[in-house]
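Possible regression after last week's pipeline update?

I re-ran a chain I had predicted before the update to compare outputs. Posting the input and the new output here so someone can diff against the archived version. Not blocking, just want to make sure nothing changed silently.
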Amino acid sequence: MATTDEARWLTRACQGDRHAFAELVRAHQGPVRALLRRLTGGQWALADDLAQETFLRAWQSLPRFRSEARFGTWLYRIAYNTYLMHVRRANGTVEADAAKEENQVTSSTSSMDGVAQGEVQRALLILSPAERASILQCYYLGLSHAEAATVLNCPLGTVKSHLHRALGKLRDHLNDSANKRASDEPSKQPLRA
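New output (post-update):
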């Protein structure tokens, strides 16, 4: 989407134009839903409900949008806060939800890409909620560390620490998984009689 289109839609939406806001929703609903799907461990229906709540909150908060951050960054923050509120309502703490997510089985397809995506999705579940959120903001959504800090409402150094720890955990987990798969494969050495 062209930046000028988004700026025009944003200006009109801030003035109460619902059609302009609908254009903003169309432009951002895919990435917002995808972020929420990953945060919820692949629960599509829940992610869609949270996305709908996110856009409703964004519409209600639009008069307070100050353009200090990009609209998308502001929207991701609302989505993340909506997810956190859901977790707190459902389980009492973010950490309790992480333990629940670790027990979920993520679906994968039979293609190699599907297997790899399933492996990465399972690996993300070993991270703490803060580490997972930092990874998703910076590597999945492509936000800068500073933008991720804004979305997550934490200091820049904290985001960098979460990323450092998360990348180490992911590397170790994925290496262990690859080594386990390699040791489970039958030997390719010819048999000798």
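Follow-up from reviewer: compared with the archived run. The CA atoms of residues 105 and 122 lie 8 Å apart. Marking as no regression found.
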